[in-house]
Amino acid sequence: MLFRKMRRDLLVSKVQFLSIFLMSLLGIFVFTGLDSECSGMRVNEGRFYEETALADLWAQGIAFRESDIGKAEFIPNIEKAELRLKLNGKARLRGEELDLSTLFLDGNEISKLYLTEGEPYVKGESGVWLDFSFMKRQGLKTGDKLSMKVNGIIFEQEIKGAVYHPEYVYFLPDAAAMMPDYGAYGAAFMDIKAFPDKRHVYYNQMVLDVKDVDNTDGLSDEEKNQCSKAALEVKYALGSDSVIVTDKDSDLSYQTFRAEIEQHSSMTFIFPAVFLLIAILGIITTMTRMTSRQRVQIGTLKALGFTKKTITRHYASYGFFLSLFGGITGAVAGHFTIAEYILSMMDTTYLVPGMGTAFSAKSYLAIAFSVLTSSLVSFMSCRKELAPAPAETLRPAAPKNLKHSLIEKSRLWERLDFAVQWNLRDILRNKVRSLMGVIGVLGCAMLMFGAFACLDTVSFITTWMYGELNTSQFQIIMKEGCPYSTTEEYAKRYRGQMVEQSPAEFEAYGKKKTGTVTVYDTGNFLHFQDKDLKPLKPDEESISMSYKMAQTLGVSEGDLVRWHLVGDNDWKILRIGGIYRNPVSQGITMTRKVFESLRFDFVPTTIYTNHTPQEKLQDDTNITGTQSLPEMMKALDAMKEMMYVMVYIMIAAAAVLGVVVLYNLGVLSLVEKNREMATLKVLGFTTAKIRRILQSQNIWLTLVGIALGIPCGMWLINVLFSTMPESMDYVASYQLLSYIYTITGTLLLSMGVNRLLSRKVKTVDMVDALKGQE
Amino acid sequence: MKPFIEFCHVDRKYRMGENDFFALKDVNLEIYEGEMIVILGPSGAGKSTLLNLLGGMDSPTSGSILFNGHDISRFKDDELTAYRAWNVGVVFQFYNLIPTLTAYENVALMKDVRKNVKRGSVWEAENKDMSLLDPKEALISVGLSEHINQFPSQMSGGEQQRTSIARALAKNPRLLLCDEPTGALDTKTGREVLKLLQDMSREKKHTVVMVTHNSFFADIADRVIRVKNGTIESVEINDSPKDASEVSW
Ligand SMILES: Nc1ncnc2c1ncn2[C@@H]1O[C@H](COP(=O)(O)OP(=O)(O)OP(=O)(O)O)[C@@H](O)[C@H]1O
Ligand SMILES: [Mg+2]
Description:
The complex is a heterodimer of chains A (774) and B (249). With 774 residues, chain A is α+β, with helices and mostly antiparallel strands. Chain A is 52% helix and 19% strand. In chain A, the strands form three sheets. In chain A, strands 2-3-8-5-7-6 form a six-stranded mixed beta barrel. In chain A, strands 12-13-19-16-18-17 form a six-stranded mixed β-barrel. In chain A, strands 14-15 form a two-stranded antiparallel ribbon. The longest helix of chain A is centred in the C-terminal third of the chain and has 47 residues, at 637-683. The radius of gyration of chain A is 33 Å and the shape is elongated. Chain B has one domain (5-246): P-loop containing nucleotide triphosphate hydrolases (Rossmann fold), CATH 3.40.50. Chain B has helices at residues 47-54, 77-87, 103-116, 122-126, 135-141, 157-170, 187-202; strands at residues 5-16, 19-31, 36-40, 62-67, 70-71, 88-91, 175-179, 207-212, 223-228, 231-237. Chain B is an alpha/beta fold. In chain B, α3 packs across α5. Adenosine-5'-triphosphate is lined by residues 14, 21, 23, 41, 43-49, 213 of chain B.
């Protein structure tokens, strides 16, 4: 019977309970949506790397011999080693040459090929296996012949199959590319026997499997330790200073994917926390109101002989069932909408076979948490009514504090309009409800402002990068190994600025980070800005470090940092002469003069210019390609798309949140004020006047909520950006329009809800409301 | 004969700011099993307070109340709950039906009451032959066979009152407490309700205590207790109680 009572109670106050249901649904919806996507990536990452036995260490050298395998495997820490030759080649298709990373294998035990189509790789057999997206986009089939070029030699192989490769989860055609565009370039895997220059077969890479290092969930400190110990041993065993041994954390493919997963996983918490918090606030008001309204019923049940336990269980079950069903619905919905959608976007950035969402234990925990808090809140609120003897509870509750507040006693009070007096008194008497209203509006304004600020920031970053930091219209990307004289000639012809961007490793206080060294020759296209985005004059003497890099290393201007270029084991020490800010590339920067004074050769990788490069430049063997400003901006599109999704979720969530909380509280206050309003009506106030009084109260609360919500929105954005990968340094930007949109949007929402509510004022029945006992 | 219920120097006081206000003061009272008792008194005299103490819905501030030898004034909260669940049926002054349950469901709720108190309490043994009445029968006995699927808000005051009585009867309690059970009823239905209560005491030998300020009802009681200003003014024994069908007001 009590269960039936609950069902009917739910129906009677369906709006309030629906809001509890919706809030717990929304909280879990967003949580599971983000978490399922993130766990999906995590699970598939682990599965894929585990199945393909991704290498733990990579040794790069000029020429390894087969005997080196024995030397490496002799090290107790090393399980297995394999040699290979990795070259940048070309695929020749339809008269075009497309970038093709080629890997000549001598075994398939470490970083195995993951076959999706065709026949498996067998050591010593001919044929080529291509990465899946390249095959698809270029319309190639197994059995086709593919013409390729490596080291200047053109040769042909039959396509044996399509594969995924664990070292090619994320890869770019060259150092200048910012975003992957799989299929436009590709990766090819062949046996070393297929290497065209039969007389000069060599190996330039050794992959190693370290004992006690698995492929799930990144590298633990323990594993990291194992790897660096093994790396030292390998270097020693191979007995060459020119050999560089790196681990997974320095691998672009591995590292980028991991960082993405980590970033997503930290985002999983911010949003749902906001929703769960507000859901809980909603439950608190709804349940306390409900139990205080059912005070006499509670007293009756108790008087009839129901135990406290039964009654508390009864009331706790309201919160329990609502949040349980809300949570489950939200989890299922989030899993199949948000998670699927974001993952489908990730699918174009990361090449992992069969990437799918995964429901994680965290989602169950989140549901459990929401159910627990809801039940607890319901439990606590009826506890209060259960404490006194039933004889007490059966009497109507004493009216809440009728004392006059300070304002009411002040002189000012008498001069206030009746509507203002009435509203002020109402707000002060119902502090919790008013606070809830403010918090609801705050949450709404916060999410809305955050969403608009996201858009502002993205557009700001575009102009910042391509309007302020780099003012060139074109960039010419030089091929690796292009002689300096050629580059210089081009620079002169196009009046361009030569810039070298090389990967490097930095170390301070035992922390190591990889980043970029940017060296610029004279010219006027590259500009620098300080921490506060004020223009910096080019520093002719010293080396500057990017703001984000300095932060991750924990250093500041004047500190010493050790660094070396990747591929060069000569560690240098620098004193940070200045700090500059860059959104996408972190590391150090210096003039060519400073660079050369450190006895480095200046090898420009890019020329920035304002002169349109000629068409035929594309065919020049010394040039990788040219890019115009719009093309460079396009590279940011993928990132923007991700942002837009976030923005839509945030705005939709803000609207739902605002409507639900405001409507819920509005109905609450109407019900509470029913008698008062009926009295006002009896006294001769028109419905319109009463409506105006109610509306002005809502507008006050809304304005307070907005005023507090905007700073919270700024905070949210900063928290969000702090979860970005280490290579990104986003500066939040807020445009005037965002303030205007947020304020008008929230006000409109609040007024819309008011309109809905004020219809109810008309239906206030004087006779009914003024009747005595319930 | 040993009294069924005994009040010894019972006080019930409320703090009113600085002073104590005695809703009941030094009440001594004996009630025998199967008696039909009417409590009379003006408004604010303490009638409902007395009834609440009898029903274990409130505890005295001093003094003791013995029910069948058990001192219920010393009972803790859950012991009182068990006491109410097993022994007491209440008809409230304002009916106190659960608005979201139909008449039938309000009465059937009593099945849950017995289910949820701990088994094996002293009361279970004492109430061996006090099995619950069928909710439908209880409703029919108060003449409500037609309205059993209506919600309280769809019933008249008298129908709600009768549902409330049916709910108390369904428990088949040894002690039936009624606060103004006929307050909202017309003479005819009022008389039927009185008849029902009288039958409870005469035929089933249940103890019935009824609060009213209508002195005509005094005629049907075995004993009449008059309360005034929180004290017992008088206790009258009615040698030949009238039959409920004979009273008129
Ligand atoms: N919780 C309480 N706090 C303070 N005073 C109380 C409380 N409950 C009852 N009283 C007072 O105790 C006195 C007796 O109350 P009681 O309800 O027993 O009167 P009653 O005889 O039932 O009157 P009525 O016929 O009007 O129902 C009243 O003066 C009442 O104001
Ligand atoms: Mg009374």
